[in-house]
TrEMBL record:
Meso-2,6-diaminopimelate binds at residues 386, 409-412, 461, 465. GO terms for cellular component: cytoplasm. This is UDP-N-acetylmuramoyl-L-alanyl-D-glutamate--2,6-diaminopimelate ligase. Its cofactor is Mg(2+). Catalyzes the addition of meso-diaminopimelic acid to the nucleotide precursor UDP-N-acetylmuramoyl-L-alanyl-D-glutamate (UMAG) in the biosynthesis of bacterial cell-wall peptidoglycan.
């Protein structure tokens, strides 16, 4: 696949210094990934400036430099420079051009919000598959094209990687792609140039304020997906003020919107909900028609996710009957209130959930409390090098449980004990109802040991992740596997004592 500079930058306001007919055979935004014939985008990042790596890119064979200011390099005489106002926006548009706008070949669904994105995309995948169509999924857990899965380092990849994935999905004849769209991706223009069929909003709670600084800035980043820059049909949960503001904006623009939520004026809302240990039975009012069905997910927050997926299904043109059939048979979402199998005689429910925001943790704890007759024991920590202001709030949210074991999450380059100290600031009212065990495996073991028949243990924060980042090293660690191992070991030692 090769394009001239003129073709690659069609629709991009730019000045070409050099030969506009130069052939570009690839795109790169990291100089160490440049291959001969590539165009290298000098991205001005949060901590580094890509213009500083222009010489390295040339040395590795870059034929075109995309810059926000002309670079003066001794070895750049045979290199074409494309001067643009915003290198990120230019990279996104050029990526769409390079792969010939692959998102136009299928229905692209973008789901944004603080919590519920992963579950919603999985439910949309179920709806589409039930209808006999091919699916693609991009998000926190990874990327799937049909049944083929691969890991992803970001919830929403950088624009060249994203458009390449779209190209692969087009070539695989995918009909619908469900994608999680993060606030970072929207702010950093990773999805610029993508064509959406439906965009959906779940909720907005505290997260990523280390990046956005204020709730208002965080919301405006999310709101970009519902602006004129991303025309599409909309699905909006209106259970918080942010969702209602989005609804107001989209309604004023006379867009096709389906509102969802527990609110009485939502177009899709629950009339009755019966929560079970392994499933939920719900009666939904869907634009005046009532539908009762059972699906294999638990918790009140999953009612919200089911309603959002229902609205997306309708906006994609699926019938209510087909949507209900799909949701009734939807599979377990990895690391989202995922139950860990253990000794049947223990009589203890053990769940792993990705909850890593105050709102998500509170909802997960409350959901577990609704499902169990005994105590709820919560194991959680907070990640390092991330929004520190939410740590004490997370501590307070955890105290919705009867007992809490505070531990380490992914401390990264921060001191794990210092992170725990931040958490404990919010747990003063819970004196006597929590303990600290920095070692995550030992914390899980401790929670399982103090649990009694009828109790439930929630291990929160990492969900599907199969690693723990300590310093700059990545260590194998999967809460689900560790919990199963420790549970089995505890059961075996109890048997020996008996």
């Amino acid at each position: 696949m090769a394009q001239t500079c003129k073709e690659l930058f069609e629709g991009v306001e730019c000045t070409v210094l050099g030969n506009p007919d130069d052939q570009v055979t690839g795109l790169a935004y990291r100089s160490d990934a440049v291959k001969p014939g590539d165009a290298f985008f000098c991205i001005v990042g949060l901590s580094t400036d890509g213009h500083s790596f222009a010489q390295d890119a040339i040395d590795r064979g870059a034929k075109v430099l995309v810059v926000e200011r002309k670079v003066y390099l001794a070895d750049a005489t045979d290199v074409t420079e494309v001067v643009v106002k915003d290198s990120r926006k230019a990279m996104a548009r050029a990526s769409a051009n390079f792969y010939r706008h692959p998102s136009r070949a299928f229905d692209l669904v973008g789901v944004t919000g603080t919590n519920g994105k992963t579950t919603t995309t999985y439910l949309v995948e179920s709806i589409v598959r039930e209808a006999g169509k091919r699916t693609g999924v991009i998000g926190t857990v990874g990327v799937r094209i049909g049944d083929a899965a691969q890991k992803s380092s970001r919830t929403t990849p950088e624009s060249p990687d994203l458009q390449r994935m779209f190209s692969d999905m087009r070539d695989a004849h995918v009909d619908v792609v469900a994608m999680e769209v993060s606030s970072h991706a929207l702010d950093l223009l990773r999805t610029w140039g993508a064509d959406f069929a439906v965009t959906a909003f779940t909720n907005l709670t505290q997260d990523h304020l280390d990046y956005h600084h204020t709730f208002e800035a965080y919301f405006e980043a999310k709101a970009k997906l519902f602006s004129k820059d991303y025309p599409a049909k909309r699905v909006i949960c209106i259970d918080d003020a942010w969702g209602r503001e989005l609804l107001r904006r989209c309604s004023a623009a006379e867009e096709a919107v389906i509102s969802t939520g527990f609110a009485q004026d939502a177009q899709i809302r629950p009339v009755e909900v019966d929560y079970g240990l392994g499933s939920t039975t719900v009666t939904l009012d869907v634009r005046g028609a009532r539908h009762t069905f059972t699906y294999p997910l638990v918790g009140a927050f999953n009612v919200e996710n089911v309603m959002t997926a229902f609205g997306i299904g309708l906006q994609l043109g699926f019938s209510a009957a087909d949507i209900i059939d799909a949701l009734s048979g939807a599979g377990q979402v990895p690391g989202r209130l995922e139950r860990v199998a253990g000794p049947a005689e223990a009589g203890i429910g053990v769940y792993v959930d990705y909850a890593h925001t105050p709102d998500a943790l509170k909802k997960a704890v409350d959901s577990i409390r609704d499902l169990t007759s005994g105590r709820t024991i919560c194991v959680f920590g907070c990640g390092g090098d991330r929004d520190a202001t939410k740590r004490p709030i997370m501590g307070g949210a955890a105290l919705d449980a009867d007992y809490v074991v505070v531990t380490s999450d992914n401390p990264r380059t921060e001191d794990a004990l210092a992170i725990i100290d931040d958490i404990l600031v919010g747990m003063v009212p819970g004196e006597g109802r929590y303990e600290v065990e920095p070692d995550r495996r030992r914390a899980i073991e401790r929670a399982l040991r103090i649990a009694r028949p009828g109790d439930a243990v929630l291990i929160a924060g990492k969900g599907h992740e199969d690693y723990q980042i300590i310093g700059t090293e990545v260590h194998p660690f999967d809460d689900r596997i560790v919990a199963a191992q420790e549970w089995e070991r505890i059961a075996a030692s109890a048997g020996e004592e008996a």
